[in-house]
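Researcher: Here's the sequence for the chain we discussed earlier.
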Amino acid sequence: MMMRYAGMFALACVLTFSGCASLAPKLETPRLTLVGAAMTSGDIFSQTFVVRMHVQNPNNRDLPIRGIDYQLFLEGDRFAEGVTPRPFVVPANGETEFDIIVRTNFVSSIGRLLTRLQGRRQVEYLIEGRILTDIGMLRKIPFRESGVVDLETKR
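Model: Thanks. This is the structure I predict for it:
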């Protein structure tokens, strides 16, 4: 008798969990691209950059983003990591841009990057991480994007 109840309980658990999984919306991964990166201030000890990101939502529903947990690599070296500071919404089948303020130090990032660039302004990038959402049971959407971006200096 006890085995019968245990079997029924196990079946109920399986059905419950499979039902929950089917409630999670099916979304295509949004596309993130690096639009630009510009140094806004710096000295020998630290530099501040504004990194401009573009997000494209290929889904037919708004995408409420709590934040983007990211790692940014330039020319193969880790340049920055963090979580975007403010939530925002990307409209259905739409796009938006936002800025990330990045602080680095010469020894860890900029020095290696400058030696690799050798006067070039175009840099290969890789950005990967997770988009943190407020959509039901779908809380994290992994992403990985790469491309080339132009570097500039703002004064």
